């Protein structure tokens, strides 16, 4: 047999070609790329790969986690990747197995999460014949992957897997699909391994270092600014730029706000932190972004949930935009200083150049700005309500944060997600949430992936009663492998955020958003899977119940029955600017101070306000 050789730079010189199957080449390549865990579900077209996986597990090369639904496999691989920064891996068979991955692939794509997704496919001769369980998963997922392959020859397997890992993790991370026809798995070829780091892809060279002229221009703007703001997104997490962001913020005394994806990129207990901005961000972050004179966007993409009314977002500010993806720079907002490059390297360049120039020339310049933000923080704090006859959702989340401050937190999507973002103070990679796609059912399998990756860390899933029911079958996976995830359901009997929008914008017409009819008894459900179930109904139970949950040796499901009609505030209504928030507390107005009366709602406001604190209208 004549072998088509891989280019010399991709060959490990101490390995001679041997005859191996495509399935062996796949499993050996995964091992060489450091894969320790695979999340998946078998089926007909992927059976040759699972047969080889059986041998790999017997050798101790890898551990397979059998999920109960392929969507759970994708989300678990995603959570694994977010918690570690490494590439997550999942398997599914052809047809419905592959299509069940689509939501998880889209979730990872929108949040730029590195994943390699392996799908089985019908044999090569059957492709295009509408064979049993055939779908064109390559075509279906084309808009939601960073790259994709169909492996046509077993001898290409090692190269393709090496390329897939390289593409998934470098530049702007993302999911890569590898579709493998069944007969490619059984086909023998001369196998030559391709080791990590040996791949060179013509035309694929992500820019790492920023242009020095742009670095100098950025420093001129930063040094001249008296009201700067660092606006940090998920790209900072991907780049592991936490230390550099803190150094830059402290050097120039710049307050820092983060997106939902950027949570954890900056210490939220730091005096320069103003928390999350955007639709449900803190009032002081939203006021700061409205009044800043310089916005330094770091690994952020000016998402609509952050900007509100785009033409009024940071409308008084010059913009510096740092991102590794040139397609994002200037996409929604044209910056004065665009810098394409790896966030960490660019920030290191900025810091080094600042030291060379002896900057900042005056680090007192932002003190008045920081005092103004401190006043906003005092006037418009995040509020934890306490009701006489029920527990507020915020109380549950605050108690979790108090007892488990260093846990890895995953969430589902909705009100509980926003409250968790507001009230938990998270460290790097310890906040794991579906931001771009907003995927209900994400939290439990993502927590499963994080806990598999980091078995000695606390991993807590905060879910809602509606979201949890999307992927509750993964309780069986927790039970089978004793994956010690602690799940807390913030149970208000509604699709909470849908109900809030229906109340606020749709005349209280609650169409198909109540979940009480048909809701399972979550405590009994947990017990049916052999998992500890708990219920919290009273405030007096809360502290002890959370402590009991955390102390239990095994997975736990807690049903926290909370106030049913609590809304998540502050809130920026669609089409409004970030300064026009609803649900803000009205600050006390000192005696004798002139007040402004809002022409829309009649509320009294301090004369220093530009917008009504009650309805958000311009004064």
TL;DR of this structure?
With 619 residues, the chain is α/β, with parallel strands linked by helices. Helices cover 35% and strands 17% of the residues. It has four domains: 8-191, Thiamin diphosphate (ThDP)-binding fold, Pyr/PP domains (Rossmann fold, 3-Layer(aba) Sandwich), CATH 3.40.50; 212-379, Rossmann fold; 393-561, Rossmann fold; 586-619, no CATH class.
Q: Could you explain the architecture of this structure?
A:
The relative contact order is 0.10. This protein is an alpha/beta fold and 619 residues long. It is built from 23 helices and 24 strands. Strand 19 (532-536), helix 23 (539-551) and strand 20 (556-561) form a beta-alpha-beta unit. The strands form six sheets. It has a six-stranded parallel sheet, with helices on both faces. A six-stranded parallel sheet has the order 11-10-9-12-13-14, sandwiched between helices. Strands 16-15-17-18-20-19 form a six-stranded parallel sheet, with helices on both faces. The protein starts with 17 loop residues before the first strand and ends in a 13-residue tail after the last strand. It folds into four domains: 8-191, Rossmann fold (3-Layer(aba) Sandwich), CATH 3.40.50; 212-379, TPP-binding domain (Rossmann fold), CATH 3.40.50; 393-561, Rossmann fold (3-Layer(aba) Sandwich); 586-619, no CATH class. Helix 9 crosses helix 14 (343-357), helix 11 packs parallel to helix 14 (343-357) and helix 16 (393-403) crosses helix 17. The model is unreliable at 1-13 (pLDDT under 50). The chain is globular and about 75 Å long.
């Amino acid at each position: 047999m004549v072998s088509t050789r891989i280019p010399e730079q991709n060959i490990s010189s101490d390995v001679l070609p041997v005859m191996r199957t495509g399935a062996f080449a796949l499993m050996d390549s995964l091992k060489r790329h450091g894969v320790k865990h695979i999340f998946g579900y078998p089926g007909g077209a992927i059976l040759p790969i699972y047969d080889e996986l059986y041998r790999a597990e017997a050798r101790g090369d890898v551990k397979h986690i059998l999920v109960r639904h392929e969507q759970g496999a994708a989300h678990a691989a995603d959570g694994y990747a977010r918690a570690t920064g490494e590439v997550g891996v999942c398997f599914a068979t052809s047809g419905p197995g592959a299509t069940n991955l689509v939501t998880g692939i889209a979730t990872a794509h929108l949040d730029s999460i590195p994943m390699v997704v392996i799908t089985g496919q019908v044999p090569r001769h059957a492709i295009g014949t509408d064979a049993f369980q055939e779908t064109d998963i390559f075509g279906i997922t084309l808009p939601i992957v960073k790259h994709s392959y169909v492996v046509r020859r077993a001898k290409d397997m090692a190269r393709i897997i090496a390329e897939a890992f390289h593409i998934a993790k470098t530049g702007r991370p993302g999911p890569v699909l590898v579709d493998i026809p069944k007969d490619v798995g059984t086909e023998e070829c001369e196998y030559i391994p391709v080791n990590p780091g040996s791949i060179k892809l013509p035309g694929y060279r992500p820019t790492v270092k920023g242009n020095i002229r742009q670095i100098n221009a950025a420093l001129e703007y930063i040094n001249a600014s008296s009201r700067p703001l660092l606006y940090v997104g998920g790209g900072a997490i991907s780049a592991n730029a936490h230390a550099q962001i803190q150094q830059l913020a402290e050097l120039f005394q710049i307050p820092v706000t983060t997106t939902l994806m950027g949570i954890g990129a900056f210490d939220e207990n730091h005096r320069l932190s103003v928390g999350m901005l955007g639709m449900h961000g803190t009032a002081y972050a939203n006021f700061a972004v409205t009044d800043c004179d310089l916005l330094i966007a770091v690994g952020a993409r000016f998402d609509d949930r952050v900007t509100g009314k785009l033409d009024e977002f940071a409308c008084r500010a010059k913009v510096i935009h740092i991102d590794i993806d040139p397609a994002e720079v200037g996409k929604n907002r044209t910056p004065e200083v665009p810098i394409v490059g790896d966030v960490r390297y660019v920030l290191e360049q900025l810091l080094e150049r600042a030291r060379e120039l002896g900057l900042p020339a005056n680090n007192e310049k932002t003190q008045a700005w920081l005092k103004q933000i401190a006043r906003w923080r005092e006037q418009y704090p995040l509020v934890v309500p306490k009701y006489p006859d029920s527990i507020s959702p915020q109380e549950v989340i605050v108690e979790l944060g108090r007892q488990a401050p260093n846990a890895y937190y995953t969430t589902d999507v909705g009100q509980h997600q926003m409250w968790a973002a507001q009230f938990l103070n998270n460290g790097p990679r310890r906040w794991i949430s579906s931001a771009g796609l907003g995927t209900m059912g994400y939290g439990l399998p993502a927590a499963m992936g994080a806990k598999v990756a980091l078995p000695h860390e606390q991993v807590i899933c905060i879910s809602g009663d509606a979201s949890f029911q999307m992927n509750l079958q993964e309780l069986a996976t927790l039970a089978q492998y004793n994956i010690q995830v602690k799940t807390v359901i913030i149970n208000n009997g509604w699709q909470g955020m849908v109900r809030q929008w229906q109340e606020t914008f749709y005349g209280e017409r609650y169409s198909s958003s109540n979940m009480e009819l048909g809701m399972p008894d979550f405590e009994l459900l947990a017990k049916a899977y052999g998992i500890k179930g708990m219920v919290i109904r009273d405030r007096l139970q809360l502290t002890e119940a959370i402590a009991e949950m955390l102390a239990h040796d095994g997975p736990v499901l807690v049903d926290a029955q909370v106030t049913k009609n609590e809304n998540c505030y502050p809130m920026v209504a669609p089409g409004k600017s970030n300064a026009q928030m609803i649900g803000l507390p009205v600050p006390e107005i000192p005696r004798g101070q002139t007040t402004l009366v809002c022409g829309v709602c009649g509320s009294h406001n301090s004369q220093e306000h530009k917008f009504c604190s009650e309805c958000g209208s311009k004064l």
